[in-house]
Backbone:
């Protein structure tokens, strides 16, 4: 029985070797017929060799394989695993670091593009609140508009008008170089820069278009539209983190005021300070809704379901909707306190005016009495 099994294994191995050496499209259907049962019914575990499927990048010539249908196989092992398991061949995914920064409240995109025209990437949508700049050697870019940012092949920078910068494939020690390019065109620099990190992994052999993970997203390939989509969500997320902390600071300030009023029964805030808090709360809410475009769907996501899937997954991963709801709730708390304190200041002003009127009436009475007494004295 074992001799028969070894003979069968040797014959199948030789057959697969012969098929792998041929690229004529007439063999593609037979290859699919053989490979699919092997993958579905664990054929490799039974006969002691593995079959690896990959996507071909050529679709034009008669002798090439179809992009979506073609497969290639390689005999990896001719014997059984020592522990009875499979010996699969895995291709390590390409890891692309993504770093998001928020260090200013406004960036002049027009002047930025004018000074970096060779690096400017032509936009593919009507969105005007960001630009994409490309740096480095991009000679490694291949097929289907994919970028394949492996090693030092190139890096991309997505810059948003509201102050966020998202860097793709930039090493840690090179970050300051690219941020210095933006700093020349930024206004409203923050005392403390916000930072977040993420990863994009390219895996051409991925069975689905995308797959999520802990602090990373895996794609079949990353292209310009993917960079724009991922960058838009990360840019909104890091900016929302800044505005959330701003609102948290206002909440803490009003909490201290309320505790002081509870302890002393007095309110000491000046009207000017209160108006400053009103302006700060309103401007933060306006920036989140208008500048960040938190509720505006990406044009790229509208056009292509693949990027809509990335956009929706990342928005859910970074909890943008829930975080905005939390920020909105805190702003309502601030608004309630502002209204309450405004009433106190208004009452305080009304009390002052009432006492002023009383003082004026009293002064008028005293003057009248003085006048009466003076006339009486003159008549005597």
Residues:
């Amino acid at each position: 029985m074992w001799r028969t099994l070894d003979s069968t294994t040797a014959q199948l191995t030789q057959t697969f070797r012969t098929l792998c050496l041929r690229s004529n499209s007439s063999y593609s259907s037979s290859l699919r017929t053989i490979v699919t049962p092997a993958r579905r019914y664990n054929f490799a575990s039974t006969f002691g060799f593995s079959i690896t499927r990959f996507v071909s990048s050529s679709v034009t010539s008669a002798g090439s394989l179809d992009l979506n249908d073609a497969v290639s196989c390689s005999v990896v092992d001719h014997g059984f695993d020592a522990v009875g398991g499979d010996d699969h061949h895995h291709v390590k995914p390409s890891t692309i670091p993504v770093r998001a920064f928020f260090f200013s409240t406004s960036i002049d995109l027009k002047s930025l593009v004018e000074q970096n025209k060779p690096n400017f990437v032509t936009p593919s949508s009507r969105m005007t609140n960001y630009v994409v700049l490309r740096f480095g050697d991009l000679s490694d870019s291949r097929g289907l508009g994919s970028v394949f940012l492996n090693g030092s092949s190139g890096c991309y920078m997505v810059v948003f008008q509201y102050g966020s910068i998202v860097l793709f494939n930039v090493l840690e020690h090179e970050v300051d170089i690219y941020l210095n390019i933006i700093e020349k065109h930024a206004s409203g620099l923050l005392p403390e820069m916000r930072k977040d990190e993420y990863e994009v992994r390219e895996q051409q052999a991925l069975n689905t278009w995308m797959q999520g993970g802990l602090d990373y997203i895996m794609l079949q390939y990353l292209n310009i539209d993917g960079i724009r989509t991922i960058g838009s969500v990360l840019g909104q997320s890091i900016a929302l983190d800044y505005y959330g902390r701003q609102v948290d600071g206002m909440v803490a300030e009003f909490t201290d005021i309320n505790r002081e009023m509870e302890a002393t029964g007095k309110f000491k805030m000046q009207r000017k300070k209160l108006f400053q808090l009103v302006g700060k709360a309103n401007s933060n809410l306006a920036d989140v809704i208008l500048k960040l475009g938190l509720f505006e769907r990406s044009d790229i996501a509208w056009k292509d379901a693949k990027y809509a899937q990335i956009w929706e997954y990342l928005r859910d991963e970074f909890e943008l909707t829930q975080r905005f709801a939390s920020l909105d709730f805190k702003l309502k708390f601030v608004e309630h306190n502002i209204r309450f304190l405004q009433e106190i200041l208004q009452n305080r002003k009304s009390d002052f005016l009432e006492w002023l009127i009383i003082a004026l009436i009293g002064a008028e009475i005293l003057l009248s009495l003085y006048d009466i007494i003076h006339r009486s004295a003159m008549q005597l």
Residues 1-6, 15-89, 138-152 have pLDDT under 50 and may be disordered. The CA atoms of residues 315 and 321 lie 7 Å apart. The longest strand covers residues 186-202. Residues 246-355 form one domain.
